[in-house]
Amino acid sequence: MDSHGECYWHVKQNIKHRFKSAALTKLYKKAAIAYRIEEFNKHFDHICKIYPRVVKYLENDVKFKKLSRAHFGGNWFEVMTSNIVETVNNLMRKAREYPIIAMIDFIISTMGQWFLTRRREAYDVTTPLTPKREETLRKIWDEVGSLITLQLNENEYNVMCREFDAIVNLRSKSCTCKNFDIEKLPCVHAIAAAGKSQPQNTGELIYSMCSKFYASEYWLLAYAETIYHVPPNSQWTNIPEDVTAIQVIGTT
Fold it and tell me: Are residues 141 and 213 in the same domain?
């Protein structure tokens, strides 16, 4: 069963309007985006002490498993907002005034152009991952620096950081910091462990640890299909009988 989360931005706006506190929204953000349960608890306990009225709303109305990255039961792939929905909603603002057929034609035309543009962009990519993910990996690689990494066994490595140590399991593609597990992209600890495991072949190992859904070929496949316009009904042919038999009754 798929897991469904609350849009981080909308929950934050609800808190802002209900409880009229900018400081509270900042605390909520820290709790919501925390990767580890311990980190979430630290921020949420702070909220409980200073803003007890908001606790009931977050615990009962929204629920931890929907508002918290650390508690969420599914895969968010770092996506915590419904921005794409808002984009489509803004696009449809004027089209809502059109007759239904014209509105559908507008949606088809717009989606067709989006698919064409993204298909062309994806076709030109030559890197294993999409450009955004490649940039993310490069930034994480720059953070590795002089991290001390100790091999524990065949698959596990202890990576020592200033804040806390992390245990990376290269076989299960997981890390105790939880970034790797949740985003399905190697965290700084995983990249450090990969360098320790295969110093001569680190790049290939790092790419193998990334989710296939970040691959440029999957990006291309996502927009591979062409969206065609619906022709005038005078050009419709080979319509199935079960479709022509349907009678649509309008309501007023």
Answer: yes
